[in-house]
Amino acid sequence: MTTPSPRPSFPSPGQRQRGAAAVFAAIALIAMLAMMALAIDVGRLYFAQRDLQRLANLSALDAARVASGCSADGVMGSLAAVSAEVQSSLQRNRDAGSLTGISSATEVGRKTVDAAGAVRGFEALGETDSKRNAVEVTLTRQTPSRIFPLISSGASKTLTAVAVASQQAVGGFTVGSSTVTLSTRESALLNPVLRALLCPSGGASCEAGINLSAADYQGLAGANVSLGDLIGGATSLGLDVDSVADLLALQLSLPQWLGVLGAGLETATTSTGAEVSSGVVGLVQGLAGTTESNGGAFGLSELLNGTGVALSGPVDTVLTTVPFVDARSLLLGLAQTASDGNPLEVEGTGLDIPGVAAVKVYLVVGDPARPGLGSAGSEEAVATTQQLTLKIRIAAGSVLTGLKTAIEGIVNGLLGVLGAVGVNTTVSVLSTDLNIGVDVGVTAAEARLDELQCPTTAINNGLPVARLSTNAGVATVRVASFSSSEPAPAALNASTNLPLASVAIDASCVGAKLGSLCLGVNLGTTTQRLGLQMTSADVASHSNTALNDVTRYTVSTTTPPYYTAENPVSNMNPQTLGSPVNAAVTLGLSSTTTGGTGLTGLLSGMLSGLVNSLGSGLLAPLLTLVNTLGSNLINPVLNLLGVQLGSATVTMIGVGVDQPELVSTDR
What we know:
Elements: H1 13-16, H2 20-67, H3 79-93, E1 103-113, E2 119-124, E3 134-142, H4 149-152, E4 158-166, E5 169-176, H5 184-198, H6 204-208, H7 214-221, E6 224-226, H8 227-236, H9 244-249, H10 254-271, H11 278-290, H12 300-303, H13 313-319, E7 323-326, H14 327-337, E8 344-347, E9 351-353, E10 357-365, E11 372-375, E12 382-384, E13 388-395, H15 397-415, E14 424-429, E15 435-443, E16 446-453, E17 465-471, E18 474-481, E19 497-506, E20 513-514, E21 517-518, E22 525-535, E23 537-539, E24 545-546, E25 553-555, E26 562-565, E27 575-577, E28 586-595, H16 598-627, H17 629-640, E29 648-657, E30 661-666
Antiparallel strand pairs: 1-2, 1-3, 3-4, 4-30, 5-11, 5-29, 6-7, 8-10, 9-10, 10-13, 12-16, 13-15, 14-19, 15-18, 16-17, 17-24, 18-23, 19-22, 20-21, 22-28, 25-26, 26-29, 27-29
Helix pairs in contact: 2-3, 8-10, 10-11, 10-14, 15-16
């Protein structure tokens, strides 16, 4: 009997899964270790990049002090000096071993901004360029060694950090006339200009409310305004303005801006102990309530030529305390800017001289005067005077009528008896109106801040040094005739010689005549002409000329401090380039003789003397009127508006220095 074989035994399901957990645990452990290594790698990369950016930021801030000229010696450092400062900063600020493998690249230049004042970036400049105020530092280093190189092998092998830092010393200054003298007569000339600017619609109530006296204009000219005053004025009117940037961003109508100016002057009165008179405050506030609005809104930066948009916050804060423009200039500038930048033609005071002429004065107002406020060499550090054209139109038709009657009477009386023997005389006087025009076009004087050394102990006893240059305004004076004086001044005709009258003597047949045949004596013909000789002239300007350094300042007790330029007579502030000259207008008589011998030559000589004598007698008041326009009208009006021909007076106001600031970073 055969014994059956035993049946094979199989493990139970539970027995078959023993050990699988260990496999999965091993796989999971490997994944966890990989994730941990990757997290450590990422963390090390992050901290390495952050440390590299920290070093770039600090070295850029330190290097900006050297590059800007605000270092210990007050001189803009060379690229080599800036690069050396970057290395020194890295050594000072590094952690132990953190400089291993770090390389650096340095460029000097300036920070750039857009039209709204937002920082856009960095523009590299040559190391001798006076406009530079910023440094760009680029640091690179190898990435830290990887714990898990297989996963991170595709990553970048280097880390890069870029930082741009800037430091600015900023100056404020103006250019204009050195003296402004106001009389009742001169203020009467300026009133129509102000009415036209503030009353664009010609409203009767507006025009009636604008009738300033000489004392009013003097008070406005003596009331200085700072950016801080305007910020305070805007805040007092309920506007949300906390900084210069907020002030420049405001878009207000002309009456609203005058309200801000009035409230700002009130702020100045409170803060300076009545430095600005309450009468001026009330005057501007009254103008704000009277002025008409053309419905348009504009920003203060349009008047200030972008002033302040490129400045950092701390610098703005410092310079808000420095007065930068007088209230009269700001008032006129606001009114001019409200015209949307278009030249405004203003009809000024008329002048009638019975029996001689009727005079009308027009002022074409272009760009307003602009103060300069910015870093040396920048577009903002340019101050200009106003751009103006003064047009004078003289209608002297009554003079022409009297001249014609008088000359005809003389000629007829002298030569009438000769008509019986065949001597013919013809008298012709200019048939159209006698219109004389004078145009005085003024090109703006300009001042620039070329260099500004920061206040350091190594230079000027710790005070700034400002170097300015300027050119005086030039005036082109043109005298010619024009076709009409209404409704606005027409273009002047090109001719500089205006014919007035002519007397022709025809003695080609003295004696008997038979038809067209002359049986008498031919004594010839002659013509005597009388005209006005009008001379144009240019008042020469001075080319751009460097001024003396401005070195005397009063230091504020604020932190950070600002420096107010002193202006005693002994100091070079203000400074005037050139000597004031007057715009001269020349109008005289011209007399010419054509032909004439024998009797006709004798008669022509007699006529020449008589006609010239009579002409000069009748024209004397007109000649005197025109030739005294420069001293009696043109120069006083230009001086009132801050323009002095042949000279430019530059006044340094103040200097502020910011701490270096980071402009941009690349993390």
